[in-house]
């Protein structure tokens, strides 16, 4: 009768089951934290995650955004969508030797959609999507942490129960406000990590859904297991780390669904215990599910390998110096030091930098280096946690610690240098997913402290203080990511030995016209890294513009000596040699640049200028024609062709070239001006006048435009209009060559006409 009565009150069964399960987990019981309904918990997490990064919404394109977005042809409508599947993240062909082999077509597709919907490169839309993605991921974390911390239980209606509402809220808040995530959210290129994390979590939640008993009474759903594999594949197509979710799903299945004691399992395997046999693996289909996950993962990796090709990505020593060390000991000790730095960024995310390469972290070369202490501390903590995860008698503790370590370590493996060389030393973006494991371990540690503490409210206030500090740090760091100037300067105090930081600060100053300050930073970059060819090239360019030609030549010669295939440095060396009137050497430098970069319109343009200086007019015209074939919008090359043909008396050919150029670049006022001059000489006054007026409308402050229009009117006999435009020209530039003489001639002519008329 009691059993029947309990069944009659079915609406209360879920609450009873929830209470019983919660007592079993016992985690929330010890945590002194806020208890909110699931809906409100998710709203709070969404709001706080939005507030952390909201001030980055109107930031610029910064750092890697230029290459991945602005210079990436895969974003433009004229590039076929199919090309995205054969290009890397930066728009290069995967088969190219220069490709980084970063295969993220779905991320590039979202960039393309941003570009098309916005009608151009407007960063606001890109930033808003990133912020929204982080908010969605943070909200999903409430569900993920409720499973990882509280276990997976369903009610009799098949509804998943949140057995750790307080702990899951705290862990989700820790994740949402972690400052190390700023690079992923405020840097648009971080979209790859955000999309990867989104599908990573959906794959995990889908796998969990497979264990909700269906109407037929089956203990798991093959459909949802396969769906988790598909979502894992999508995560990998957003960023390479996504594939690791398949391994984590297998770990979760073994520990949570099958409640396997790893130490006991290892012991039985070692002693060939007959009681082990296939009971655990086959009774609940664990072996079958792991086989599905392994086959799916192997298939995904094989397809990616076929698309990517067999060649590894080409990285340089400055990108990852430890991986180029000859000694295995030096490589191992530095890799472990990098791991300790990543762990420190999770624990204390105060020193953040957009780039940690190029001498930012000097190599450890002996055991006498004091930084060995960091390695010892890391492994002391890890070994302690692993021992507790394996040997603790508390099954709940074993499960949480193992899952925490799994989510901390497994997503980090692709960035660990263990399987292949990576192109960075430390990168904040790659610990977006591993921070899930950190949040699990932090929350569990907080529950243990709460259990021991007499004044639990003080402990809760301390955690609230950490969250508040992280929110403020996120807001500050987001503001630094809003512009390149702030971002690069913020790195000077964190990585003063990083040559790339000084290079980027110098480049930013040079772009703003502050050449004197830029020279200082470029020199420091070269001092820190004497083989930094890009810094040499940029410094040589500035010195060339300041007419310090001999030092510029030394720097550029050294750059091409260090990197013989550096096409830009060869071209700039040619420009300097041309200015020094060493024409044969300049010509040779230009052709060497073209040899290393066959499609190099700017080099053809400069080669044409050299030939023009040598009166090799046919060669000059051919070089400029090559420039316009490679880059149809190359205005300077078109202009020089028109001017050279005009000066050599080939007016008909000059007119034809001018009309061709304006068809391709219809709004270029300099081309209108050049063609107007040709038409004026051909006595096509009306058409010439129209082009001059159009050019003046586009650029009303160009003295030469008014001066040449005045000459046209002067020839045409419209003397009053000629006088008017001569005067405007002289007002804009009193020293304009020839204009004053022409104006004086016109005035005398007008005076003579007045006398005759009088």
Automatic annotation (TrEMBL):
<dbReference type="GO" id="GO:0004169">
    <property type="term" value="F:dolichyl-phosphate-mannose-protein mannosyltransferase activity"/>
</dbReference>
<dbReference type="InterPro" id="IPR019734">
    <property type="entry name" value="TPR_rpt"/>
</dbReference>
<keyword id="KW-0472">Membrane</keyword>
<feature type="transmembrane region" description="Helical">
    <location>
        <begin position="286"/>
        <end position="305"/>
    </location>
</feature>
<feature type="transmembrane region" description="Helical">
    <location>
        <begin position="243"/>
        <end position="266"/>
    </location>
</feature>
<keyword id="KW-0256">Endoplasmic reticulum</keyword>
<dbReference type="InterPro" id="IPR013618">
    <property type="entry name" value="TMTC_DUF1736"/>
</dbReference>
<protein>
    <recommendedName>
        <fullName>dolichyl-phosphate-mannose--protein mannosyltransferase</fullName>
        <ecNumber>2.4.1.109</ecNumber>
    </recommendedName>
</protein>
<keyword id="KW-0808">Transferase</keyword>
<keyword id="KW-0677">Repeat</keyword>
<keyword id="KW-1133">Transmembrane helix</keyword>
<comment type="similarity">
    <text>Belongs to the TMTC family.</text>
</comment>
<feature type="transmembrane region" description="Helical">
    <location>
        <begin position="33"/>
        <end position="54"/>
    </location>
</feature>
<feature type="transmembrane region" description="Helical">
    <location>
        <begin position="458"/>
        <end position="476"/>
    </location>
</feature>
<keyword id="KW-0812">Transmembrane</keyword>
<feature type="repeat" description="TPR">
    <location>
        <begin position="703"/>
        <end position="736"/>
    </location>
</feature>
<comment type="pathway">
    <text>Protein modification; protein glycosylation.</text>
</comment>
<dbReference type="Pfam" id="PF13414">
    <property type="entry name" value="TPR_11"/>
</dbReference>
<dbReference type="Pfam" id="PF13432">
    <property type="entry name" value="TPR_16"/>
</dbReference>
<feature type="transmembrane region" description="Helical">
    <location>
        <begin position="131"/>
        <end position="151"/>
    </location>
</feature>
<dbReference type="Pfam" id="PF08409">
    <property type="entry name" value="TMTC_DUF1736"/>
</dbReference>
<feature type="transmembrane region" description="Helical">
    <location>
        <begin position="188"/>
        <end position="208"/>
    </location>
</feature>
<feature type="repeat" description="TPR">
    <location>
        <begin position="499"/>
        <end position="532"/>
    </location>
</feature>
<keyword id="KW-0802">TPR repeat</keyword>
<feature type="transmembrane region" description="Helical">
    <location>
        <begin position="403"/>
        <end position="424"/>
    </location>
</feature>
<feature type="transmembrane region" description="Helical">
    <location>
        <begin position="430"/>
        <end position="449"/>
    </location>
</feature>
<feature type="transmembrane region" description="Helical">
    <location>
        <begin position="220"/>
        <end position="237"/>
    </location>
</feature>
<feature type="transmembrane region" description="Helical">
    <location>
        <begin position="372"/>
        <end position="391"/>
    </location>
</feature>
<feature type="repeat" description="TPR">
    <location>
        <begin position="533"/>
        <end position="566"/>
    </location>
</feature>
<dbReference type="GO" id="GO:0016020">
    <property type="term" value="C:membrane"/>
</dbReference>
<dbReference type="InterPro" id="IPR052346">
    <property type="entry name" value="O-mannosyl-transferase_TMTC"/>
</dbReference>
<feature type="repeat" description="TPR">
    <location>
        <begin position="601"/>
        <end position="634"/>
    </location>
</feature>
<dbReference type="InterPro" id="IPR011990">
    <property type="entry name" value="TPR-like_helical_dom_sf"/>
</dbReference>
<feature type="domain" description="DUF1736">
    <location>
        <begin position="311"/>
        <end position="383"/>
    </location>
</feature>
<dbReference type="GO" id="GO:0005783">
    <property type="term" value="C:endoplasmic reticulum"/>
</dbReference>
<dbReference type="GO" id="GO:0030968">
    <property type="term" value="P:endoplasmic reticulum unfolded protein response"/>
</dbReference>
